[in-house]
Every structure is written in structure tokens, then in C-alpha cells.
Design brief:
By secondary structure, the chain is mainly α. 64% of the residues lie in helices and 0% in strands. It has 2 helices and no strands.
């Protein structure tokens, strides 16, 4: 998966799960931390 693809999907997931209030911290996170959030939110979709 390319960087652009998962980052775009992360943006969509952050909007979908905005009630978790993760959006406020995204700008200060590293790519590794963003990847972890992406994996977490992706798992929520699969449940």
C-alpha cells in the first residue's frame, strides 16, 4: 500500500470516528504513530 493511499484512508477514518477526538493530535504525530492509529481504526471498521 502506498503512503498516499493509507494516509487518505486514515483521513476518512478520522472523520468517521471524530467522536474519539483523535483529530486534534494528528498534526503532532509521527508516521509510525499515524500508522498505529490507522490500524486501530481499520480494525474498528471490520468489527
Amino acid at each position: 500500500m502506498s503512503d498516499q493511499t493509507w494516509l487518505e484512508r486514515l483521513e476518512m477514518l478520522l472523520v468517521r470516528y471524530s467522536h474519539l477526538e483523535i483529530n486534534e493530535d494528528v498534526a503532532s504525530l509521527s508516521l509510525v504513530e499515524l500508522w498505529a492509529i490507522y490500524l486501530y481504526l481499520s480494525r474498528l471498521v471490520d468489527e
